Amino acid sequence: MLYERGIFREARRCYQRAFDLNPKHAVALLAAGVCTHKLGDVDTAIRSVNEALRINPTYWEAASYLGHLFYDSKRRDEARQVWSAIPEVKFHDPIALKRLLTLLTGPAWAEKRKALRAQQRALEKARAEEPKPEKADALMEKLDEKMEQGSLAQHPHGNAGWGGMPTALEPAVCETGFALGKILSRVFERRVNFNKGDSARIVRLDKNLAETYLNGLAGYLDEFPWLFDAENNGAQYGLDHKSGHTASISPDERLKGILKIYEFADTVALMLYAKHIVVASRKKLAKEVFPQVAVVRLREALERLKPNVPLKTLVYEAWLELRAALEPQ
Fold it and tell me: What percent of the chain is modeled with pLDDT above 90?
């Protein structure tokens, strides 16, 4: 995902977009807050996490993270207030628990300290090694899982490992990425790692699914280049964010920039998924329901993308495989 690659600004924009699409999406809002914290804006991060808690007052992971934000900002009273509201049995962050115990002084907190220490012993017993801090990276992995689970709850035909969130498969063009991910979760048994030679096993395919994915991918490719906003202006990729034309950089720098864009957008996988869908559609669907119009549209999108596909790269190989699959039979 973008967060794991240290692209916090883009990751935040995607999480924020997920929240904009669903204003009750507290998980996306917390994830945006974590990215904002990574970017050094603690006050805005606190507002985001507070809003996530307003949406879901029993979102204890958000409360735990908010307590750390307050504690690290020397706002210890606020940290104590947030952490002490978490039920003892819901405390799964050993560092937050340890910090809270140092803040609960005096006889008035005796019973609370006793209950928290019991939970602390239970956590220590459950761990084979010394408890480690609940780092932001570990929290983000949990948020990914929650977002995927939430997507699967809304889309019961989805399979494990997919979700409506901006991962490597669903990058900055969030709306399209979400839609493509949901379709793929219904078509394929599981997420496929093409780099490792995983087989792409299709469990469900009909005209609507094939047509929707191929049209969606065509529109997605037509949006190249991705990952541009007013703040970075595309400079880090050596491209002009409005036209996609190269800036004043060397050919090697431009190549690196182009490949970064494709990598972040996981374009290779998206095109290879499309290849498998087209091949399977030719075998499984009757000629009269084969999504020919969508195939033609995707073939045209590939041709428009061709000038920006570097030769002798994985992107080019995927481009060739998909184009061959799209050729009339």
Answer: 36
